[in-house]
Amino acid sequence: MNPFQKNDSKETLFLPVSTEEVPPRPPSFPEKPSPKICGSNYPLSIVFIVVNEFCERFSYYGMKAVLTLYFLYFLHWSENTSTSVYHAFSSLCYFTPILGAAIADSWLGKFKTIIYLSLVYVLGHVIKSMGALPILGGQMLHTVLSMVGLSLIALGTGGIKPCVAAFGGDQFEEKHAEERTRYFSVFYLSINAGSLISTFVTPMLRGDVQCFGKDCYALAFGVPGLLMLIALVVFAMGSKLYRKPPPEGNILNQVVKCIWFAISSRFKNHSGDNPKREHWLDWAAEKYPKQLIMDVKALTRVLFLYIPLPMFWALLDQQGSRWTLQATRMNGNLGFFVLQPDQMQVLNPFLVLIFIPLFDLVIYRLVSKCGINFTSLRKMAVGMILACLAFAVAAAVEIKINEMAPHQPDSQEIFLQVLNLADDEVKVTVLGDENNTLLAESIKSFQNMPHYSKLHLKTKSQNFHFQLKYHNVSVYTDHSVEEKIWYTLIIREDGESISSMMVKDEENKTSNGMTAMRYPAVHCRTKKEDFSLNLGLLDFGAVYLFVITNRTNQGPQAWKMEYMPANKMSIAWQLPQYALVTAGEVMFSVTGLEFSYSQAPSSMKSVLQAAWLLTVAVGNIIVLIVAQFSGLAQWAEFILFSCLLLVVCLIFSIMGYYYVPLKPGDVQGSADKQTPQIQGNMINLETKKTKF
């Protein structure tokens, strides 16, 4: 996670400003000083903003942590569809900030924008929670409610994204700039605290609480919705304490118009009658002030370096989708604690809080002492390489999981096991051209089969003839089977003889390592009586068959057979890939924004924020496209992403090699002279890093 942005803790902390000179406006802030916290220089109003941010981040991350598994196990979508919709939602969350900034800057102002879009946010959570109630309609209604709810949540979280941090900065007087900087450290900690706690808690609400006989997704979505309602109430409670600046005008709109006018003017005058311009943006000089054109020129130099960036986000944001799906096929029992698959995401905010001071105070200083010029662009390139390595490790883990998983029947093959429920042993033989004995020994009563037996078919479907020897009596039976399916042949007593039935097993693959649970007492009911059965420990990813018998004086008893083994590979093997990708994020994201802001005028900070968020949105769209259309095995898809980012890293390194950095004085000097009246309202974080 990154201290400059809000969604996924990628939050830019600055105020959007305008390059146009405007006449002084009457002050909109209250004339009397705002109440302070315990006699300090910190306004009391920031308490409401920080608490609001914590609750909102808990709300967003808590909902998002269980989203992929909700698609997979509640809506019963495929892994590819679940991944695609997850990243479509993430992408929308990064497009909507542009709309939120436009509303705040040009129409409502920050305070009203936060209030109104938070109401939309809460409504989205309510609708999303309703879509997780099994008793409410069928799958179609659940799907519609989920899509409507997620759309409203994306509008809410994205719309308030560019407003909350900057609104907090508005609460400080200009003479308290140092306190304002410290406020942003606390603000960032509230983001990561909300993310850390919710990513750990909401999977427990989903998996450890049962409602309607299943995992309680309604509760896992409802609690984050409640936190968002609390966030809205807390923020509204501070209304009388806030300093509320009026809308300042949308600088992004001015930049887009300036670029469009320059391009259109250039093509209108392509005949050569007009004198050539030194730069293509100079064609906008007929309409726009020179200072704005100079600022846009500096901006476009940075935006050019943004072109390769989406591929990094394409890898980073798969922690909540592909990596979570990988965790479902692993064993979450750590001995001292049972970890849910969607709880592994908690490693990212946890490691961010460790890595940022570690890199700033230790690693970067050691590199500097070694005489290595570790520039910002080099740090970003190394961050990309670390993300490549993370996905290479993820691919290796995926290959190992596949090796440990049961083999699947191929074409013209079936897997068959025999379950003997009779009171004595039975000898099973397949008749025909290939008289195969399924087991060398007879199958004893209630004997656990060591493995499935593979049978070959002559066509896609075939009738098999079985001979069952029981008490010196041979019983002959026929059963029809189809290729690529797992079957269980159930043998039971039928008077003094036996009979059999062929049952298709559920799809036999390690796909749901949701939890390891012990059921000390499961309530059962027959026509005559109610009773409880002890099912014992049910392990990760295992598939069990339970047979309830009532053949003794001890009453009904349960016989458990594990016909698909539990997940063997520990979920702890995901730790290296999380560590690598988080280290890459710290080097890439934090450094990238620092570099970007040092290379562009102060008036272009809000435009850079919009462009940075758009790179994240495009990265999620890349994942959506690959997941939907690649058709690759999961390990091959991880390798594909790793190789793509490696190629992009090479391109970015070449672009960085020929890039000539501007000195801060060259960028800021002219802008300072042109717009002195806006410097007082800026939140200057260009050279300040978050302190912990």
Automatic annotation (TrEMBL):
GO terms for biological process: dipeptide import across plasma membrane; innate immune response; protein transport. PROSITE patterns: PTR2_1, PTR2_2. Gene3D superfamilies: MFS general substrate transporter like domains. It comes from Bos indicus x Bos taurus (Hybrid cattle). It is found in: Apical cell membrane; Cytoplasmic vesicle, Phagosome membrane; Membrane. Proton-coupled amino-acid transporter that transports oligopeptides of 2 to 4 amino acids with a preference for dipeptides. Transports neutral and anionic dipeptides with a proton to peptide stoichiometry of 2:1 or 3:1. In kidney, involved in the absorption of circulating di- and tripeptides from the glomerular filtrate. Can also transport beta-lactam antibiotics, such as the aminocephalosporin cefadroxil, and other antiviral and anticancer drugs. Transports the dipeptide-like aminopeptidase inhibitor bestatin. Also able to transport carnosine. This is Solute carrier family 15 member 2. The chain crosses the membrane at residues 58-78, 84-104, 116-137, 143-164, 185-205, 217-237, 298-316, 346-367, 379-397, 531-550, 571-590, 610-631, 638-660. PANTHER family: OLIGOPEPTIDE TRANSPORTER-RELATED.
